[in-house]
Amino acid sequence: MAVKGLCLQTSYNQRENRENSSRARPYVDECVNSSPCDSANGMCENSGGSYVCSCNSGYELDGDGSACNDIDECASAPCLHGGRCADEVNSYTCTCADGYTGTRCETDIDECALEPCMHGGTCTDGVNSYTCACVLGYTGSSCETDIDECASNPCMNGGSCADEVNYFTCACVNGSIGTLCGTTECGDGTVCHNGGSCTNPGPCDCVTGFNGTMCETDIDYCSTTPCMNGGICIDEVNNFTCNCAAGYKGDTCQTVLCDLSNCQNGGTCTPFGQPCNCPPGFTGDLCENAPQGLSNGAIIVLALGIFGFVLVFLSLVCFVFVQGFRRNQAMKPMLAEAQYDYSICRNRGVYVNESLKGSRDYESIQERRYAVGQALDRLRETNALNNSVDQFLVHY
Ligand SMILES: [Ca+2]
Ligand SMILES: [Ca+2]
Ligand SMILES: [Ca+2]
Ligand SMILES: [Ca+2]
């Protein structure tokens, strides 16, 4: 973009002025004299009586006709598929999201190009991923695992199993025959099927899941209709499985998942037939399990209980302390008396005049005897009395 500068003419006689001007005025290069353009990112071109500013590639002329501004090449969002754009001078660069490449991240990388699917698996390219469709006998994200067809111990009567690709073979022992070694000829004309073994006397000892004289009958474990709530029963060799109807689960479809009304504790049933969406802390298919630990209410009650216990404990301590202090105050005069009032009675013995028994004075003496004993203990603790005071004697 370019803008021309404007040169003003002031005389009414333009021809004369132009002639006079060409004769009188010197040549003026505005680009040199005043540097009106952005010399860092553009250039100035002088013309007769005027000039023109222009900008380098990647810059555009500002509205003032002189400055050159960097064009934001990211403004048009050139990076595709979530790529991040970085503006540069007259260009941009894209940092592509995983799975894409190209100047504008326009190319989905073919993750199948390196043929990641093993053992003949078919690869399907995805966004930053691939999936493999494995041939029979293999499994794993890259079909890397040979399925162990012997895992279910299909060979009967002690036959040994050899795993192959998508099949197995059984090596039979003990006279058993058949693909699974399930048939045994007993030699007396009896034949035991389905893994049954010969017995003497016969006819056959059947393995679990079969019965009949020759173990020829596969017991139908679905005959008792064990699947509940519309579940479909599938008989197996020694068991059954249930394909549950929507909204139920469990070995026998006995567990009801959510419908429009059975979610507990504020749980919601979305979507139908799945475990309820439970409030925080609640668990279980129907939100029937309360949060573990203490509820807020229980925590408050416990805190109040602890506070009350501490309050009572401190009150008791204060009471005992006050009582002790008051007793000490009361004992001071007695103690003074006791230190000088002793005689032949030992071990805190108190001499009591027999004539005082039954009187108020006698009861008072018993109380004082106790009080004096305590006072002596305190004196001993403070070394106010030496050990000889163990033999301290008091009489009244
Ligand atoms: Ca730019
Ligand atoms: Ca891809
Ligand atoms: Ca295999
Ligand atoms: Ca069965």
From TrEMBL:
The UniProt record lists the keyword Repressor: no
EGF-like domain segment(s)? 27-69, 70-106, 108-144, 146-182, 183-216, 218-254, 255-288
Which residues does UniProt assign to the signal peptide?
A: none
SMART domains on file: EGF, EGF_CA
Xref: Gene3D superfamilies: Laminin
Q: Which chain regions cross the lipid bilayer?
A: 297-322
A family per Pfam: cEGF
**Cystine connections:** 96-105, 134-143, 172-181, 206-215, 244-253, 278-287
Q: Name one GO molecular function term.
A: Notch binding
GO BP terms in the entry: cell morphogenesis; gliogenesis; neuron development
A cellular component annotation (GO) from this entry: plasma membrane
InterPro entries xrefs? cEGF, EGF, EGF-like_Ca-bd_dom, EGF-like_CS, EGF-type_Asp/Asn_hydroxyl_site, EGF_Ca-bd_CS, Notch_Cell-Fate_Det
Keyword Electron transport recorded: no
User: What keyword terms does UniProt attach to this protein?
Assistant: Disulfide bond, EGF-like domain, Glycoprotein, Membrane, Repeat, Signal, Transmembrane, Transmembrane helix
Name of this protein: EGF-like domain-containing protein
Organism, scientific name: Strongylocentrotus purpuratus (Purple sea urchin)
Q: Taxonomically, what lineage is the organism?
A: Eukaryota, Metazoa, Echinodermata, Eleutherozoa, Echinozoa
